[in-house]
Every structure is written in structure tokens, then in C-alpha cells.
Write a structure and sequence with these properties.
Elements (H helix, E strand, L loop, with lengths): L1 E9 L6 H14 L3 E3 L4 E4 L2 H16 L4 E9 L7 H14 L3
Antiparallel strand pairs: 1-3, 1-4, 2-3
Helix pairs in contact: 1-2
């Protein structure tokens, strides 16, 4: 499965980068395939392992903030392999005219 999530500290002021970095650190330490962009971090793996990482990342942010917002989107597709890259590569093929 792929899970895209965003965890945001609330009640800490405008600067959230340091707390968000703690969440990303947890994700990267997990060893699961992942990608972070300006809005979300996406992780690929099995249900239990991915959700454990999301929970740990959320806890890392909540250790720095009195309140936390979590947004999560999941693509659950049994048997999919390397979906983190394959989905993007498929779109890029269409954009280049190669189908």
C-alpha cells in the first residue's frame, strides 16, 4: 500500500519545519520506500508497518506541540510492487508520448 500523509504541529507558531523534520526523520529511519515533497510524505509497505511509521511520526511531532493535525490518504492495492515509482513513471510515459 501507499500512504501519503501530512502531520502538522498546531499551537507552536508559524514555523513548523523543525517539528515536521522530526516526522520525516522517523519515516526515513523506518527503511520503507518513501518520498517527501512540499505537502506530503508518501510511504510504501504493508498495512501494519506503514501505519506504525505514521503513528511514530505523529508522536514525534506531538512531542513538540500541544496539538497535531494528521491528513492521510491511502492506496491499497494488493500485489502492487514499487508503486511509489511506477505510478509516477506511468504518468511520465504519457507526458512524453510513449504509451
Amino acid at each position: 500500500m501507499l500512504v501519503a500523509f501530512s502531520v502538522t504541529p498546531l499551537g507552536t507558531g508559524e514555523e513548523v519545519g523543525e517539528a515536521v523534520a522530526e516526522a520525516v526523520r522517523v519515516v526515513r529511519a523506518s527503511g520503507l520506500p518513501n518520498r517527501t515533497d512540499a505537502m506530503f510524505t508518501t510511504i510504501e509497505g504493508e498495512w501494519d508497518e506503514v501505519m506504525a511509521v505514521v503513528k511514530a511520526a505523529t508522536e514525534a511531532v506531538s512531542a513538540r506541540a500541544p496539538r497535531v493535525s494528521l491528513v492521510l490518504k491511502a492506496d491499497i492495492r494488493p500485489g502492487a510492487v514499487d508503486a511509489l515509482n511506477a505510478k509516477v513513471e506511468s504518468v511520465e510515459r504519457y507526458l512524453s508520448g510513449d504509451r
